[in-house]
Amino acid sequence: MDIHFQNPSGEGWRADCALVFVFEKERPASFAPLLWELCPWLESSPALRDFTGRKDDLTLVYGLPELPISRVILVGLGKKDAFSLSVFRIAVAKAVHYCRGRGFATLGLPVEALDALLLNRGILIREAVVASKLCLYRCDTYRSAKDENETPPDPRWLGLLFAEEHIPEESQQAARQGEAEAAGVALARELSNGPANHITPAVLAEEAQRLGKAHGFACTVLSGEEIRRLGMGALWAVARGARQEPRFIVLEHCPKGREKENPLVLAGKGVTFDTGGISLKPAAKMHEMKGDMGGAAAVLGLFAAIGAMPKADALPRIVGLVAAAENMPGSDASRPGDVVATLSGKTVEILNTDAEGRLILCDALTYAQQHWSPVALIDVATLTGACVVALGDHGSGLFTQDKGLRSAFMDAAALTGDLLWPMPLWDEYDANLKSDIADVANIGAREGGAINAALFLRRFVEKGVRWVHLDIAGPGYVVKASPLHPVPGGTGAGVRLLCRFLENPAAFADEQQEGIC
Ligand code: BES
Ligand code: MN
Ligand code: ZN
Predict the structure, then answer these.
(1) Considering only CA atoms, which residue is closest to atom 8 of ligand 1?
(2) Helices (H), 49-84
(3) Residue 128 lies in a domain
(4) How many domains is the chain built from?
(5) How do residues 3-25 score in pLDDT, each as one tens digit?
(6) Do residues 346 and 397 share a domain?
(7) Of the bound ligands, which one is closest to the alpha carbon of residue 291?
(8) Which structural domain range is residue 494 located in?
(9) Which of 104, 136, 167 is the last residue of a domain?
(10) 108, 136, 167 — which closes off a domain?
(11) Where are the alpha helices (DSSP H) in 159-293?
C-alpha cells in the first residue's frame, strides 16, 4: 500500500473510503469540518446516529458511488482523557484492516481530523502510516497458492488529505519516516517468521549485503573459518555442532563527513535456530526457536529503515553487528563442561549449551570494542526465558547502568508503545557466574536468570563504555495475533524502539556522559 498526498490545488480529495477518528461523546463533524463540507450527505446519514465514539466502534457511512469520496468510516477512540498514541495506532490498524476486508482499494485520511486530536501532527502522521502498514502485514512467502478470497489484496494507496495549498515539508517527512520504519519492521518480521531451513546464518549475511548494496552501507561478512581464526571461540563453540556455518556480519551507516566520529554500535543475537544444543530443549514449542534471531532481525530491520529514512544523513555513524549461528546438537557440538577461549581472551566454562546467546554476543561485544570506541554499545537479543517469566510475553528488559541511556530508551518506548522495563544489574549476583575451572561460567542460578545473563555480558564490557542490553525474548516472537501484528510469530520488536532512540542524539553524544545507576 503506497502512501501519497492530496491537496486542493492538486486533484482535490478522492478515495474509496475516508477514515475519521473521533473521541467518545463528541460530534464527528467537528473533527473533520472540510470533509463534512465536501460530503454533505454525511450529516443526514442514518448510520451517523449509531456511532458512539467508543473504542472499537467502527461505523461505515455511505454516500453515492460516483462521488470523489463515497464512503466514510468513523472510528471511535474512546474517552478523550484516556487517549494515547497506542490507542491511536490500534484504532488506525483496526480501521485499515477492516477496509482491506471490505475490498476498498483507496483510502483517505483527512489530516484535519488528526489535528483535532491535539497531539503533534507529525507524530500522528508517522504513527498512522506505521499502523496502517503494519496491520496489513502477512507472511505468504512459504505458501504455494495465494487464495484471493481468503486474503483480499491490500488497498492500493492511503492518501493523506491536506487542506493546505502546499503540503508542509514536515508532514511529508513524517509520512516517509513512518514508511521507512514500517519497512524495517516488515523485514524483521519476515526474517523472524522465516523457518530455520530457509533463514540460515548465510541467508542473514546475504540480506545484510543486499541492504548494503541497496542503501550504500559498507558491509563485511566473516565466514566460519574467519570467525574461528580470529579467535571468536565462544561464537564458534555455539556454531560447531551445526552443518550450517556461522557468519559474523558488520554493517555500517556512515553519513559523509562523519568518518572520523566514534560510532554507535548495535549487536544482534542471530541464532537462526536454538535446539539448546547438547543441553537439548523439550520438544514442545521448540519450533518457536526459529525466532531466536529476533535481535539480529531488529538490527537488520533498523538498517532497512535507515536506508529509507528521509533524513538518514542527519543520523550519527552507526555500526550494526550480527552474530549468526545455529545451535544444534551433533558429534562435533560443544559439550556441557567444555571450556573455550573468547575473543577477549577470557575463558568460559559452558555449563549449559542452551545458554548460547550470551556466548555469541560476548564475542560481538569484544569485537565492537576492539574495532571502535563506541559512543554507546547496545545489544539486542531474545536472550532468556527468565525475562519472559519476569515481564510477561510483551515486556522487554532494559539493562543498563547509564542513566542517560536508560531514560533515552524509556522515552523512546513511551512513543513507540514498546513495553520496556528497567532491570537491575546487581553486583551481588555476579558471583553466580563463578566457574571452578575457567574465568567465568555461562550460567548462574536459575533464579534471576535474565539478570545473570546480563551480568555475564557485562563481564565483556570494558569500564567506561556506555552499554545497554535489551532482552526481547518475550515480544520478539508472540503466539497471538493483535491489530498491529496480525500474524502470530515475529513482531519486529526493537526496530521502532531503536529508530526512535536514534532520533535523540543527546542521549549518546560523547560529551553527554551521565551518571551511573
Ligand atoms: N533463546 C533462548 C531464550 C528464549 C526463551 C527466547 C524463550 C525466547 C523465548 C535462550 O537461548 C535460552 O535457551 N536460554 C535459557 C538459558 C538457561 C539455559 C540458563 C533459558 O532461558 O532457559
Ligand atoms: Mn538457548
Ligand atoms: Zn537462544
Answers:
(1) 473
(2) none
(3) yes
(4) 2
(5) 999 998 777 899 999 999 999 99
(6) yes
(7) 1
(8) 179-508
(9) 167
(10) 167
(11) 169-193, 201-215, 224-230, 233-239
